[in-house]
Amino acid sequence: MTHRTIPCGPENPLRVVVVGAGSMGQRWLATVTATPETELVGIVDLDLDAARRSAAGLGRPDLPVGSDAVALAADTGAQACVNVTVPVAHHPITTAALFAGLPVLGEKPSADTLARSLSLAAASEVSGELFMVSQSRRWNPQLFALHGMLGELGAIGTLTTEFFKAPRFGGFREEMAYPLLIDMAIHAFDSARFLLGADPVSAYCQAYNPPWSWYDGDAAASAVFEMEGGTRYAYNGSWCSPGAETSWNGTWRASGEKGSALWDGDNEPMLVADVEPAERPRSPYSDIGGALWAFVESLRTGSTPMGEVHENTMSLAMVEAAVQSARTGQRVLVDDVLDQAYAAALREETRADVRAALTGWPSVRGALVPQHQPPPAAASA
Ligand SMILES: NC(=O)c1ccc[n+]([C@@H]2O[C@H](COP(=O)([O-])OP(=O)(O)OC[C@H]3O[C@@H](n4cnc5c(N)ncnc54)[C@H](O)[C@@H]3O)[C@@H](O)[C@H]2O)c1
C-alpha cells in the first residue's frame, strides 16, 4: 500500500503528539523527546492530570495537553500521532487520526479485536495515511541475527519458544481470561512470522491456570501452529513460573535441515551447523526507538515498514486462532478465523467508505500479504 509522504528528518523533525500517558506512554514520551527526527508537541490523555504530570516530568510543564488527539494535533500543528492508549481505545483513536490526515504509530495490539484491526487496515487504505504497529521486539538486532541464521539452515522443520516468567502486575492483566496469550504471546508470534518469513495456517492450543496462579484467567498456554511451507511453530509459556525464568523475549530454538540455531533472548544467538556464515543484516536500532526510526523513515521515503497494519494483523490472527482453539479444544484454521473477523468487521463498520474498501478486498489473506520492504539503512553484522 502506498501512503502519503512527509518531508522530515533532524533538520525538520516530525511534529508528534503522544496519546496515552500511562506506564508505556512514559517510555514513548522519553523516546520521542530523545529522537532527533521527532519533536514532541503535545500529550493527550483522558486523565488530564496524568498528561500534565508527564509534561512536568519531562521538564516541560508548558507543553500543550488535551483529552482529544485530533483536536490537540490541530491546535499544535502536529503531523503524526503515537497511540499508546489501552487496546480498546486503539481503533477509535487511530481511525479518527488517520481521517484527520495524521499517520499513526500505534502500540501493539493493532486493535482489541481482529475485526477492528481489519477495519484499521481498510481505514489506512482509504485515508492514504500510514498506520504502523510498534511491535517493539521485531527491531531487536539479535533477532535480526537469528533471522539471518535461519536463512543458512536450509528448510526449517521446527521453531520453538519457551517463555517462563513470574511477574506480579496487579491490574487488568490479572483479571483477563487469557492474559498470557492476549497480552504477551503476540510478541513471540510476531517474531516467529518474521523469523520464518511465513504466515500461519492453523493453530492448536491448550490454555490452563496452574493451581498456585495469582491470575484469574489462564496464565499458561501451549500452542502449536502450522506455518505456510509446513514448519511447526511451538510456543510454551507461563506467566506464573517462579525460578529459572527465561528472558522477556523467551528462549528460542530453530531446527533445520543443516543444523540448529539457539537464542536465549538476551545474548547473541548461536548457530550450531556446519555451514559458511552468510551476511546477516541487523536492525540499526532496537526496541521502540527502532519502531520510531522505521516510522519516520517510511514517512520520509514512502517505503512500507515492518509492522504496517496489513502485515501486522496476521500476528493478531495468531492470537485469536490460539484463543479460539483453547476455548473449543479444536484445531483451528486461520483462514476461518480471518473469515469470521471479516464478517464481523463488515457488520460493525460505521464508516461507509471503510466498509466499501473492505468489500473490495479479493480475500482477507490476499489483502494482508506481507508488504514490507527491507529496512532502508540496515547495517551488516
Ligand atoms: N511493547 C511493549 O513491550 C509494551 C509494554 C507494555 C504495554 N504495551 C502496550 O501499550 C499500551 C498501553 O499500555 P500501558 O501499560 O501504558 O497502559 P496504562 O493503562 O498504563 O496507560 C494507558 C493510558 O491510556 C489512557 N487512555 C485510555 N483511553 C484513552 C482515550 N480514549 N484517549 C486518551 N487516553 C486514553 C489512560 O488514561 C492511561 O493513562 C497497550 O496497548 C499495551 O499492550 C506494550
Core attributes:
381 residues; alpha/beta; Rossmann fold; Dihydrodipicolinate Reductase, domain 2; 2 domains; eight-stranded mixed beta sheet; binds nicotinamide-adenine-dinucleotide
How are the elements arranged and paired?
Blueprint: E1 14-19, H1 23-34, E2 38-44, H2 48-57, E3 65-66, H3 69-76, E4 80-83, H4 87-99, E5 104-107, H5 114-127, E6 131-134, H6 141-150, E7 156-164, H7 179-196, E8 200-208, E9 220-227, E10 232-238, E11 251-256, E12 259-263, E13 270-273, E14 281-282, H8 287-301, H9 309-328, E15 332-333, H10 334-348, H11 352-359, H12 364-368, E16 379-380
Parallel strand pairs: 1-2, 1-4, 2-3, 4-5, 5-6, 7-10
Antiparallel strand pairs: 7-11, 8-9, 8-15, 9-10, 11-12, 12-13, 14-16
Helix pairs in contact: 4-5, 5-9, 5-10, 5-11, 6-7, 7-9
This protein binds nicotinamide-adenine-dinucleotide.
The biggest beta sheet is recorded as: 8 strands, mixed
Structural class: alpha/beta
Radius of gyration: 20 Å
- The CATH superfamily of the largest domain bears the name NAD(P)-binding Rossmann-like Domain
CATH architecture of the largest domain: 3-Layer(aba) Sandwich
List all distinct small molecules, including ions and cofactors, that are bound in this structure: nicotinamide-adenine-dinucleotide
